[in-house]
């Protein structure tokens, strides 16, 4: 699995998704329309998770994916996503984990690994204090 890690600034959830999806596009892991489709899916099926250290996990259908990868963007300031469990609630997220899954059969395995990381609030808090290089190294180790 490929991982793209970056720091970023976004005014809202749509900008955050575009920021994350553009990192995947730059590497050729997704098609041009991937980000747009992630935004459309997010409107119908929100992905904000109200964990101890809230995250969002936007994604879309595999037909827009060239190679399985994840883009993890650490936002300087949180942006509001709608809550996955209750779309009437909002979640301020610091991390956007944009999933690009090519093989639908790998989706459950991939998501379970992401959820495992998301539930490790101590790990996410520690990541937030690291420089970008160490941030990337730690995520690569965790996903390995």
UniProtKB/TrEMBL annotation:
<dbReference type="Pfam" id="PF00359">
    <property type="entry name" value="PTS_EIIA_2"/>
</dbReference>
<dbReference type="InterPro" id="IPR051541">
    <property type="entry name" value="PTS_SugarTrans_NitroReg"/>
</dbReference>
<protein>
    <submittedName>
        <fullName>PTS sugar transporter subunit IIA</fullName>
    </submittedName>
</protein>
<dbReference type="InterPro" id="IPR016152">
    <property type="entry name" value="PTrfase/Anion_transptr"/>
</dbReference>
<dbReference type="InterPro" id="IPR002178">
    <property type="entry name" value="PTS_EIIA_type-2_dom"/>
</dbReference>
<keyword id="KW-0813">Transport</keyword>
<feature type="domain" description="PTS EIIA type-2">
    <location>
        <begin position="1"/>
        <end position="143"/>
    </location>
</feature>
<keyword id="KW-0762">Sugar transport</keyword>
